[in-house]
Amino acid sequence: MNAEASVQRERGSLVIRMDGAFDTESAQAIGRELAALPEASEVYIDLSHVRQFHDRGVAVLGDILAATHARVSVRGLRQHQYRMLKYLGVPSSALNPLATGYPEVAASAD
């Protein structure tokens, strides 16, 4: 996996932060985290520190987000990735963290 992930629980929500290059393996890692959650869990995915997005990884993420039962909010996307995810059926509300009250939590030290 090219992206490094930090997963933490904050105030009953799961926060996944990634940095580095976001590829298919990175998207699949997010998918595994989402699959392990109870239905209707609240998840925040922070991609603001990703320096490079692979289109295939974004496409896999789109499929995962469109199929999940968790309430997901993603931030840190560039315009191209935002458009890709919208085309793949990810609801705009999941791609607009300001509308969903994205928590401002400190990065973990692990």
Tell me roughly what share of residues is in helical segments. Answer: 25-40%
DSSP strand count = 4
Largest sheet, order of strands side by side?
Answer: 1-2-3-4
Unreliable segments of 5+ consecutive residues: 105-110
Structural class: alpha/beta
Report, as a whole number of angstroms, the end-to-end distance.
17 Å
Protein traits:
alpha/beta, 3 helices, 32% strand, disordered C terminus
Structural notes for this entry:
The protein is of the alpha/beta class and 110 residues long. It has one domain (3-90): 2-Layer Sandwich (Transcription Regulator spoIIAA), CATH 3.30.750.24. Helix content is 31%, strand content 32%. It contains three helices and four strands, in the order ββαβαβα. It has helices at 24-35, 55-67, 79-87; strands at residues 3-10, 13-22, 42-53, 71-75. It has a four-stranded mixed sheet, covered by helices on one side. α1 links the parallel β2 (13-22) and β3. α1 (24-35) runs parallel beside α2 (55-67) and α2 (55-67) crosses α3 (79-87). The longest helix has 13 residues, at 55-67. It is globular.
